[in-house]
Specification:
mainly alpha, Rna Polymerase Sigma Factor, Chain: A, Arc Repressor Mutant, subunit A, 2 domains, 7 helices
Length: about 160
Amino acid sequence: MFDKKQNFISGLFERNRRELLTYFTRRVGREDASDLLQETFVRVLRNGQLEAVINPPALLQQIAVNLVRDFARRRKSEAAYVRYAFFQADAPTDEAHPEEKIEYDRKSRLLDAAIDNLPPRCREVFELTIDDVPVSEIAQRLGISDRMVRKHLSLAMRLCRAALD
C-alpha cells in the first residue's frame, strides 16, 4: 500500500515538476521557486486521501496558486515591518533641524501608543517580530499556527501605519 502511494506521488512529481517550477519562477522569482515547489509536494504528502482526488494535477495547481498568494502576503507583511524598522532607525541626528526632531518625536509617540493599544496577543507577536524571532518560533512559543502569527502581525502593521498617517 505504501509503495503504491509512494510511486503515485513520485510519478505525479515527475510529470508536473517542470510546469510548477516554471509557474513559481514567473510568480516569485528563481530564488524562492524551488522552496515553493517543495512545499507543494509536502502538502500533497500530507493529504491522506490523495487516491480519492479526481484530478491530481489540478490539485497541484490549486496548491501552487495558494502558496503564491501566501508568499505575496508574507512579503507584504515583511515589507511593512522593514518600513517600521526603517522609521525606528531613521531618527534625526543632534544636528537636525528642530522641526524634524519634533516631527519624529510626535510620530514616535503615536507609534508607541498604537503598539500599546494593540490587542495583547497581537502586541506580543509584534514585539517578538521586532526582536527578530522567526515566525515559526513565535508560533511554537505562543501555541498558535504560523498563519495566525502572520495575521496578528498584519493587524499590528495595519494599525501602526494608520496611527502614523
